[in-house]
Amino acid sequence: MAKFILTSRFIKNPAFANAGKLLQYMATRDGVEKLPRGIDNKPATKQQEKLINSITKKFPETKQSIEFEDYENAPTKANASEFLSYFEENYADKIEDMKTLVRYYAERPGVEKLGSHGLFSQTDDKINLDEVADEVSNHDGVVWTHVLSLHREDAERLGYNNAKAWKNLVRRNVAAIAEAHKIDPDDLQWYAAFHNTGHHPHIHLMVYSKSGQGYLTNKGIELLRSRFGKGMRTILLPKGTLHVLKERKKHAVTEWIFPSLLTPEQPTAPNSAYQRLKVILQNAGLPDIRFHDLRHTFATHALSNGVDAKTLSGILGHTNASFTLDTYTHVTTDMQKNASAVVGDFMEELFGSDLQPWQNGEKQDKEPFVCAKTDDGKAESS
């Protein structure tokens, strides 16, 4: 499984810290110096070493970053540059005003721009960078900033080497983001930008509540790490399902297998499957259920038909098999009853229906099983 890295910080007083400039810096930084090809593996310069030592002393938590881990294992110019870029991105509010950081997120070299900048959010509506920066800067609640990254090889293998893939990943996990930050989904606001850096493609994610509510605990951070990591899992589909999807792909008018009917260049609305399910249930005269209940139905049948809990937990995206078993205790209870019946039948076959053939000095109902050797040394039973 890919190693998914999440680092999180918060800005307690965005107005005082000028959080809008953080957003602009996040979107627009100018003049990042890139190392030319052919010297990446040369040793880090004395100036780089001195600067990194100063940073790690003042901010010891930066030693937990994968960029520092790479630098520590191989202190080259390239790895030193990656670490310094990481520090500048994650601690820019310590060294620059907030609006500058916001602009860096959206416009720095390496960011994949979606128009004049690289910011994206929940919808594809045009984002006015200056307006958003002012909105964040004047926010009177807490603003959380996260960096979500992958190693280059994992990003290439899983297809997370472009803004579109990351945008879809964040949008799929909006409910988890709201839950982790203790924010009502309708009250949630977030912005992000994808940076396609050499070693670790990543996104900067800024999260806050419109009303100023919410809080983030270590448990919430673990929830984010788990949900985003599981969002990148690979799921094997049955051959029949694959065949149907491939046929739809062949005749698709756009890149989407399920495009919007009115705007084919966009995917179908997320709630279209839910609405279609309601029509099917009504036409078939079946009880009204939630779309999510189909997931529970699948899991129940999978367990009942012998799929082991570890495999099923991976398919469902659960953190561990114990959570799967706890969630579907009604199924595992039936499985235990079935197992008990199998063992009971086996015991009765061996010892009889009373299961007490040798107790209290009673005579056995059946002749004992005897195994002896014949003259030629072969075993003979009776």
Q: What is the gyration radius calculated from CA atoms?
A: 30 Å
Taken as a percent bin, the fraction of beta residues is 5-15%
Q: Which series of helices and strands comes N to C?
A: EHHHHHHHHEHHHEEHHHHHHHEE
What's the total number of strands?
A: 6
Please describe the biggest sheet, giving its number of strands, its sense, and whether it closes into a barrel: 4 strands, antiparallel
Which stretches are low in confidence, meaning pLDDT under 50 for 5 or more residues running? 29-39, 360-364
Class inferred from helices and paired strands: alpha+beta
Straight-line N-to-C gap: 56 Å
Q: How much helix, percentage-wise, in residues?
A: 40-55%
Shape: globular
Number of helices: 18
The averaged pLDDT comes out at 77
Give the arrangement of secondary structure elements.
Blueprint: E1 4-11, H1 14-17, H2 19-28, H3 46-58, H4 66-73, H5 77-90, H6 92-95, H7 98-107, H8 129-137, E2 143-150, H9 152-158, H10 163-172, H11 174-180, E3 188-195, E4 202-209, H12 218-230, H13 239-250, H14 272-284, H15 293-304, H16 309-316, H17 321-327, H18 329-351, E5 371-373, E6 379-381
Antiparallel strand pairs: 1-2, 2-4, 3-4, 5-6
Describe the 3D structure.
It contains 18 helices and 6 strands. The protein has 382 residues and is an alpha+beta fold.
Attribute tags:
382 residues; alpha+beta; four-stranded antiparallel sheet; two-stranded antiparallel ribbon; globular
Brief rundown of the structure:
With 382 residues, this protein is α+β, with helices and mostly antiparallel strands.
